[in-house]
Amino acid sequence: MKSRLALSSMIIAIILIILAVIIGIFLVTGGILSPLSSLTSSKNVGAVPVILNNSPQKIGLYSAFSQLPIGHLKYQNTTTVARIFSVTGMNLDNEGNADSWLFIARQQNKTKFIEVNGRGLTTSAWSGTVSGSEIDPMNVILPGDLFRTQQSKLRPYMDDNWNFYRIDLKNKNYTLTLKKESEQKKFVFNAINGGLIQG
Predict the structure, then answer these.
(1) Number of domains observed in the structure of the chain
(2) pTM of this prediction?
């Protein structure tokens, strides 16, 4: 009986020692490790600065058009329609999205300069003259579709890293300006069907 009691005491002592070692490791390491922590390496580097990306995302012409008051909004019959006469997209990517879209429009007999970018819309008065025909957003090919249609003409410039600097839509034509260092190349396309006019 005494040997059983001694054996039980020894087993309890071993269990307590093992528990003490486990608790000591737990306290030294700062807690229980996540099961996934062994799969990823990490290093405590202190405070890490967060850098905010203040540049807006590029935006497509369709999205820019959708932000303009170019039609009566549902349930708002008092919305005054803006008539668009000029559109310019700046710094386009190969998909036809731009850093910003600039519009010259007339609304309530006032001419406005409207900029639409990834942050939203800004409007200011425009004192310049408005010439040319009105642009119907539903009747023009979008730049992304134009670039796909004219891919054989534009691909060499894309592959050679030319900057799609700007695209201007006026009088039913697109004028695309490409730049690379001091070189410049212009193309003129029909804005209705995407056909090449010059370039």
Answers:
(1) 2
(2) 0.66
